[in-house]
Write a structure and sequence with these properties.
With 380 residues, the protein is mainly alpha-helical. The chain folds into 3 domains: 124 residues, no CATH class; 90 residues, Serine Threonine Protein Phosphatase 5, Tetratricopeptide repeat (Alpha Horseshoe); 125 residues, DNA Cyclobutane Dipyrimidine Photolyase, subunit A, domain 3. The strands form 3 sheets. It has a two-stranded antiparallel ribbon with strand order 1-6. Strands 2-3 form a two-stranded parallel ribbon. Helix 8 packs across helix 13. The radius of gyration is 22 Å and the shape is globular. Bound molecules: flavin-adenine dinucleotide (FAD). Flavin-adenine dinucleotide (FAD) binds next to helix 6, helix 8, helix 11 and helix 13. Flavin-adenine dinucleotide binds next to helix 6, helix 8, helix 11 and helix 13.
Length: 380
């Protein structure tokens, strides 16, 4: 908590660059002498903001911190990044690369100046910890990521409590078998919302995972938690290598000698896109999932894949529109994982199979045979 470290959170609303420049000016005209410290983000739109702030005269100190691995230890340069995930994994394992060491957090943060009362003519809103409004329409929301319960708020305290709870249970032993389920807290780790806002780091998770393995033994499932965190790093590495190219309709596919990927650009269809967003396509599994997403901001990995595939291959829409909708809704939005996964399913990334089309009937039969999930979201 910032308060425990001697500072406070200010909430500013509006254009990021303008607001931060105005804040710097309000701090007794510190523009040019004050610093903004931020995470270094290798994604084009986020980088643009940092560039604009620097142009406006603010000294931005951005530090790379979000990956599990220390990328300076990689056995290849970013230009030589293996194109396919499996090749990356093999190299990492061959070289025995370990997760970064957990760094001690800062213990003190300078207090806000007493004089700071206004930014750009608006009085400063010093944010108090707010409980999110419990406005969910479906009782099923408690079986998703229950962001409205105190244990699931976006604080480091809640993150650590959840981490301890997860690794004090035997859930890691069965992660691989359960991770494709559709509803409930315990079928997957639910670390993603805290990872995405930085109140939990991948390195911290791996430290707890290793302690768990020392005490209880390693198995396929405990390995698979690391494996999934490596996917998260892989999408970061893809961004470092390809940057803006990942945001084009064709992604990076034209760069690679891969076969069987879709070649035509999808047609735009506003009406079907809206139906997809609000969960009224008429395809029950997709509708249930989209309602869960809008209500809770969370969706299982399996259903993210299903609804993404449906948008791309059944509705024939632009995958980037789907990615943008996810960006606006996800409680665990992570620019790298979101863009990377959409690109992968669309076959515009580096998937050797050139896209992932999911058969909705089969997915429904395999993952919701009794219709329990669909019914719980009113889409039976
Ligand atoms: C279309 C699509 C969009 C996605 N968008 C996001 C996003 O914006 N933010 C996000 O964090 N994840 C995203 N994912 C990946 C994945 O669905 C979520 O990380 C996972 O469902 C989060 O729940 P969990 O923490 O319980 O995951 P677990 O299954 O418990 O996995 C543990 C951790 O591994 C990482 N991980 C797991 N699967 C993936 C994956 N496929 N790609 C990258 N990292 C992974 C996450 O950090 C996750 O917290 C997306 C997947 C798809 C198919």
């Amino acid at each position: 908590m910032l308060q425990d470290k001697g500072s406070k959170l200010i909430e500013l609303r509006g254009d990021i660059t303008q607001e931060l420049v105005a804040l710097a000016n309000s701090l007794s005209g510190c523009l040019g002498s004050c610093e903004i410290h931020s995470e270094k983000i290798a994604a084009p739109f986020e980088q643009e903001i940092v560039d604009q702030l620097r142009l406006a005269g603010i000294h931005v100190v951005d530090t790379w911190q979000s990956s599990m691995l220390d990328f300076s230890e990689l056995p290849f340069t970013i230009d030589a990044l293996p194109e396919v995930f499996t090749q990356l994994r093999v190299q990492i394992e061959k070289h025995g690369l370990k997760a970064r060491k957990v760094q001690p957090g800062v213990t003190k943060i300078p207090a806000l100046p007493e004089s700071l009362k206004e930014v750009d003519g608006h009085s400063v809103n010093v944010a108090a910890a707010e409980s999110p409004v419990n406005n969910h329409l479906y009782p099923a929301a408690v079986n998703s990521f229950p962001y409205f319960q105190e244990d699931y708020f976006g604080s480091e305290q809640a993150a650590k409590k959840h981490l301890t709870r997860y690794f004090s249970s035997s859930l890691p032993d069965t992660y691989k078998e359960t991770r494709d389920q559709l509803s409930g807290i315990d079928y997957s780790t639910k670390f993603s919302p805290w990872l995405s806002i930085g109140s939990l780091s991948a390195a911290t998770i791996v430290e707890s995972l290793q302690d768990y393995e020392m005490e209880h033994g390693a198995n396929k499932s405990t390995y698979w938690i690391w494996f999934e965190l490596l996917w998260r790093d892989y999408f970061r590495l893809l961004h470092l290598k390809y940057g803006k190219m990942l945001y084009r309709a064709q992604g990076i596919s034209s760069n690679l000698a891969l076969t069987a990927r879709p070649t035509a650009y999808p047609a735009r269809d506003h009406e079907s896109f809206i139906k997809w967003c609000e969960g009224s396509t008429g395809t029950p599994l997709v509708d249930a999932a989209m309602r869960e997403l809008v209500t809770t901001g969370y969706l299982s990995n399996r259903l993210r894949q299903v609804v993404a595939s449906y948008l791309i291959y059944d509705l024939n829409l632009d995958w980037r529109a789907g990615a943008a909708w996810f960006e606006s809704q996800l409680v665990d939005y992570d620019v790298y994982s979101n863009q990377g996964n959409w690109l992968y399913i669309a076959g515009r990334g580096s998937d050797p199979r050139g896209g992932r089309k999911f058969n909705i009937q089969k997915q429904t039969h395999d993952h919701d045979p009794q219709g329990i999930y669909r019914t719980s979201w009113g889409a039976a």
